[in-house]
Amino acid sequence: MSSERPAALLETSGASASSDPRLLPALRILTCGSVDDGKSTLIGRMLYENRLIFEDQLSALARDSQKHGTVGDDIDYALLLDGLEAEREQGITIDVAYRYFSTPKRSFIVADTPGHEQYTRNMATGASNADVAVILVDARKGLLRQTFRHSIIVSLLGIRHVILAVNKMDLVGFDRAVFEDITSKFAAFAKPLGYKTITPIPISARFGDNLSSKSGRTPWFDGSDMLGTLESMNIGSERDTLPFRFPVQWVNRPHLDFRGFCGTIASGTIRPNDEIAVARSGRSSRVERIVTMDGDLDVARSGDAVTLTLADELDIARGDVLAAPKDRPQVADQFGARIIWMSSDPLLPGRSYLMKAGAQIVPCSVTELKHRVDVSTLAEHAAKTLSLNEVGFCNLATSTPIAFDPYADNRDTGAFILIDRFTNETAAAGMISFALRRAANIHHQDITITKSERAQIKHQTPAILWFTGLSGAGKSTIANMVETRLHALGAHTVLLDGDNVRHGLNKDLGFTDADRVENIRRIGEVAKLMTEAGLIVLCSFISPFRAERRMLREMAPGEFIEIFVDTPLDVCVARDPKGLYKRALAGQIKNFTGVDQPYEAPERPDIRLLTAQESADVSAQRVIDELRTRKLL
Q1: 3-class DSSP assignment, residue 476
Q2: Catalytic residue among 184, 543, 615, 619
Q3: Which residues of the chain have pLDDT under 70?
Q4: Among candidate residues 175, 203, 235, the one where a domain is terminated
Q5: What strands, in cross-sheet order, belong to the sheet with 197-202?
Q6: Same domain, 57 and 122
Q7: How far apart are CA 161 and CA 233, in angstroms?
Q8: How far, in Å, CA of 435 to CA of 330, rounded?
Q9: Which position among 282, 336, 436, 469 has the lowest Cβ density within 10 Å, counted as fewest Cβ atoms?
Q10: Is residue 543 flagged as an active site residue?
């Protein structure tokens, strides 16, 4: 790199210096890169050089450096951020460590993220709110697989400003050729990633070279030091120029004379008398006041937490998005999105999750996994599921339409998370790309004869009797007996059995977790349609997962009766009416529930049948008695 070449490999006006740095908003910084590239040392050294460490902290750091340090007798500044004992013992960062500091020119929020591949989800968490990414590279090792992985994830999560910090230059003699080789290779790799600016800086985090001031050991480098570069970045104003978006977090009504809508402005600006609209309904009004704890504002910008009062009474609830009437976000219930899978349990297309988009939480399912992305090469591979830390592109469907912008246009209104409905853990982070138009010409058709009218002529109440349990528990036998008795009582029924359905409707499905989820989803839809006919539907399926049984209950509220045919595994193995356990235990059948596939027993079934202690005849009669108690017959 010649001395005349500017420090930024790519430049746009988005990161220009402000004429008054004191007015710049707090900058959110992400540090990432491969393990042991010096991320924690970089931040710790910057805090030390700017006198942002108290004397007692410095004394404790000196003691910890003797115990856990990796730099001999010197102070190990990485220990300021590696707060977990496990991190200090291993010399790595596991969790995301946040640090807040300020200089006379600006305040900063720094997320120090882990470098190990197994903690990619932690890195993605830190990147989700960052404005700029500092990607560290060890000058001795050059660009590594994890460097590429983190760079791609940074791009996927919408960070458009990158500082390439080539660290440990002291260990290569501050060789200019090494620095130029790394920066040129990174620039070539990053071309398709869509960064607005890439600013390379040669540093030695351990000794502070080019961190808070220019180093005399790199006279050939004509760019700014790290702190100066960060202080001059004017990124926050970019959100002010985007269309106005205000996700409502809370409806505040302390008394009859005040009704305000609380939240944080995601993008754009708003003033009293501005027109606004509710994104989903399109109803519009005018902003009357912008209320804060410190008094009313004349203008509010992105990042401001405010309460808006409107001139008109509109139906607005938590989760709604207020927007400019002539520039509203899209509203859809199906869309394509990239997701980063963050759960140790794999993604199962068809399974119902909860989507949290802004303040709104709605049931959601992945209808199709289009491909998995190799985050080292950006190559796309066919896949049926995603595992921990994998990235994929999928189609999703929500139970109700949501308002959103494509993530590329607005990170706040285009982002979401998926929540496991059973464990309440975050399963994935997602970025919406576009709405799917496939259902735009499909509408609900009004039908003259209602479900209740169909049921009334049959003198019964529609219901789904869902028999679940291990293979050999007696589900089909008992379900058959129950239907026979219901038929004798004049009830209108239909029996859906797992084996029979797989001969026709579901003959294309196997027995992987994903196929089992889809098997139950289809049966649930069929059973729901049959209740529309006023029928009592008996379903006999192993249905091993609680999540899908919960989904069925929510699909047919008040009509789903879960019947757990509770039979110990050893009893089922002893019965083995179809010889399946024998073959499964011999390894001839894979993914067999109870052998190499788990069965998640119901925790609170509506009816529990203990078939090891009572006959099938007695169990069947107990179901009939329960239906009479519920007045379904």
Answers
A1: helix
A2: 543
A3: 1-25, 50-97, 114-123, 125-126, 236-238, 438-445
A4: 235
A5: 97-102, 107-112, 27-33, 132-138, 161-167, 197-202
A6: yes
A7: 9
A8: 8
A9: 282
A10: yes
